[in-house]
Amino acid sequence: MFGFLRRKKPAPAAEVPETAAEALVPASEAEQGPSAEDGAGSATETAAASAGHVASRDGDRVAGSVDDRAAESDDERAVRADDERPVGSDDGGRLPGAGEDADGSAPATPLVADLHRDPPADEAAAVPAEEAAAALAGQQPQRASWMARLRQGLSKTRGNLAGLFVGTKIDEELFEELETALLLSDAGVETSNHLMQSLRERIRRERIETAEGVRTALRSIVADLLRPLERPIDIDAAEPLVIMIAGVNGAGKTTSIGKLARHLQREGKSVLLAAGDTFRAAAREQLTEWGARNNVQVIAQQGGDPAAVAFDAVNAARARGIDVVMVDTAGRLPTQLHLMDELKKIRRVIGKAMDGAPHETLIVLDGNTGQNMLAQVRAFDDAIGATGLIVTKLDGTAKGGTLAALAWTRRERPIPVCFIGVGEGIDDLQGFSADEFASALLD
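Given the sequence above, the corresponding structure tokens read:
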């Protein structure tokens, strides 16, 4: 996972879990044992010391003992062999074992590692180093796989943009084609004009003369525009941390909640879900299924008041010592004013259950809605004050330029994109990175 959860204070010491949900929370990183650097260092130093001593011992034997033995007579050599044969040995012609010379005798001086090495300590230190290396090797392919899925999801826009820099020259025709490609990516007229003006200025200022240089400059400009949208969620901001989830119908709210619950558990947090979508028949069952998958508790009422469900969930979390509460709400269109008013009510009731709550108000957006995404953000922000966005379904025909439009049109008060999703898998929801997103669009 790419840094989308931030912690300001260290995780509390491990305690005996009181609930089934807490019992399934993974241990924190502080409980993983010695660091990889310590283990790798000790193992390396021991190996180096052993190798150096072996080289020195072999050198002495070649320079001295072999020449002396060459001058011995046959009788003297036979007597010496009988004297040096280990007691109880009758293995004529046996190959030399560990720690023996080629003639079967033990070396006069043992290896330093045999005399001074503490095998249990060294081996215990080496294990974490191997595990850390394996973990790092596993993380890199996972991140590469995530980037591959993101690039695939944005392939339509990338094909329109990146293809313009192949075998072309810098002229007015290139600029016109770039502007058209940006418009087709749902970046909007204002955002496209801003990007093209910034690109022209950089080409002139840096004297860029190659198409590849133009692509690099545009990628940097797009990343700089998107950077204010980067913000991880502080999961230690409150106890419990209350997160309210809203969005239009079919944007993927419930699925996103299930994925976030899994990621929060990996960070050592216990989670409680509130099924506040009491209008859709299958919403409660869907959230309950996600709760069963993640082994977390779900507060639900059939046909109840959504605000009452949220109120009960916050109080239950405070009583049970739960770390994070996520409140699902019914999907609604911004034009449904009576339903938007209900969202305001849910927010007010959550605030009565706990001062300062909800601490995060996340709006889930379908990445395929294009410029309509801007209207949705404005409506939900006016109603309940959005603190972050989750952009889902960037795995099909999504064009991606809408995020650039969102960053430009809301540059005075940017709302962070905390997470983006590229599929239905549990790991297909990741933290937003401006550099990675710009690379997926243009590389």
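Residues 9-71, 84-138 have pLDDT under 50 and may be disordered. Try to locate this feature in the token string yourself.
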